[in-house]
Amino acid sequence: MSVTNFLSLFDFSKEQLLEMLYLAKDMKTRLNSANFNPLKGKTLAMIFAQPSTRTRLSFEAGIFQLGGNAVHLLPEEINLHEKDALPDIIRIVSRYCSGIMAYLFTDEQLEQLKNCSTIPIINGLSYENNPCQVLGDLLTIMEHKNKIDNLKITFVGDGNNIVNSWLNAATKFDFEFVLSCPQGFEPDQGTWERALKNGANVKIERDKFKAVKNADVVYTDVWVSVGQEAQTRTRKEALISYQVNEELVVNAKKDFLFMHCLPAIKGEEVTTNIFEGKNSVVFEQAENKLHIHKAILSELLS
């Protein structure tokens, strides 16, 4: 498979995404293989607009385990927020490195990176998409359910960038995706309409109990993301009735998976008992970020 950038799951076919998932499973078995170094001599530039422990660790450890190296670039080091300076910096980085992982960029900035760069761009997270996370989530589901199609995946809470990427994934796989959120917390309208236009089995169900009924996966995320701090009070007041708790999950299948992309605020979007319970796979999700990132890096940089 020839991959030039990894910006959105919508850009790939089902077969291409499955190829990356199976490659990630293979990468997982090679974790301690000293002779496996397909990215020897490769360097990944990692540009973070905001700190992220899991994304930085998983990309940095991932390329190191594949024989390459990573360089962490701070916003002030590359004049990230100066629009006119960014194209020149990216053209320079393109001559020094083998790929760029960009975290927490607007879609406009990602498009600017893509247009200026001569090396692959990976969307580590943007305001509208989180494709690496959701591809890793699919790996976790595949490991536990032995399939991705014909499952019901319910997301309870804010229709954020995770939800947008799940909508993109739903255009490629045959699962049902249900979002339960209050009015005003719907996902990006364009992404929603594109998912419907492309035949995705997606819907919004305001009643969280109906949304979770017979779910194979129950997913949630924090109510206040980076950049939304000024809205903390209003967001929490609107979302408090959408907590994932014991009363809610009894409506899901007995062997449901509880998922969360972390960091979690236990006692807000999810109770501690659910987060730490037997159905929780949140730390397997976190581990699989490493393996899916290795697969993405291998596809783009080798």
Characterize the structure shown:
The chain has 2 domains: 138 residues, Aspartate/ornithine carbamoyltransferase (Rossmann fold, 3-Layer(aba) Sandwich), CATH 3.40.50; 149 residues, Aspartate/ornithine carbamoyltransferase (Rossmann fold). It is globular. It is α/β, with parallel strands linked by helices and 302 residues long. It is built from 12 helices and 9 strands.
What brief labels describe this structure?
302 residues, single chain, 5-stranded parallel beta sheet, alpha/beta, 2 domains, Rossmann fold, 4-stranded parallel beta sheet, 12 helices
Helix content: 40-55%
Q: What order do the SSEs take from the amino end to the carboxyl end, as H and E?
A: HEHEHEHEHEHEHEHEHHEHH
Q: Which stretches of 5+ consecutive residues score pLDDT under 50?
A: none
Number of structurally distinct domains: 2
